[in-house]
């Protein structure tokens, strides 16, 4: 059964990738559709998540090395970062502090329990980084992915209206999207042009690195 | 099949860096995930020129092409947290949306102010 689940996950993902390349709408993002199908399969067949993971763990083990691979695109972005070093670094640092700080403030004000608070903290970081950061600080990684996606879709669905009332320039838009909404935000940046995309990609990478240090530090500092 | 061999070798290299990162975390007790320590190691090797980019490009490209697949298993785990569909879940969703807007505003605003000052 475990092996069937492993195979089914890979096949579903490949199929969903095909469907996505056909329609290109963010709501058909392969992760989203694949997870929906697999959750439905587990609910219908009554197979437990534990049994599912016995097979799927082989896919899960690829995540760590894939995070290491993110260094390569970051290395290739070095020219953009060098050119606008100070504005990018300062804005991303301020943005990451805002993301963690606002999450903490709202969760505390509304009395969210600790584990759930720690789960939503890394929501602005790119998903492969949000997963290990959530587990490092004591949140629930699987739920953290859901909130990371929600942050991304917030940017995708609302940024046209957002930028209508808050008319940032092309690079400001990129910094806003990449810092607050990682890869999904960056996919939206394409609509605002090349400069917005490169700023968004750099902001996303930098936010990932800064967030993975700042997150645990923030939790320790506030003794959450 | 030379490309296939290259990919396999380079992916193996990424596994080694991940392993070193995880071990470094264990030894140092640093609260930063081992995968990110591995990432910084690779980035340092590339930036200093110790490792030519041509030694990782194909492996990294392969891993990043399938990256979304790799976090499917952990995400399917939401099946064990029905809290997401409760009132608390909805509150958390609203917090996420508000926090995202606030972060977009503050990060974008800071960048606008700084690039104007710098004359860029």
TrEMBL record, chain A:
Topology within the bilayer: Multi-pass membrane protein
Protein location: Cell membrane
InterPro entries: CidB/LrgB (IPR007300)
Segments crossing the lipid bilayer: 31-52, 85-107, 143-163, 202-223
Keywords annotated in UniProt: Cell membrane, Membrane, Transmembrane, Transmembrane helix
Protein name as annotated: TIGR00659 family protein
Organism of this sequence: Salimicrobium humidisoli
Taxonomic placement: Bacteria, Bacillati, Bacillota, Bacilli, Bacillales
Automatic annotation (TrEMBL), chain B:
Subcellular location: Cell membrane
Transmembrane portions of the chain: 7-24, 36-56, 63-84, 90-109
Keywords on record: Cell membrane, Membrane, Transmembrane, Transmembrane helix
Membrane topology: Multi-pass membrane protein
Pfam hit, one: LrgA
Protein name per the record: CidA/LrgA family protein
Organism encoding this protein: Salimicrobium humidisoli
Native organism taxonomy: Bacteria, Bacillati, Bacillota, Bacilli, Bacillales
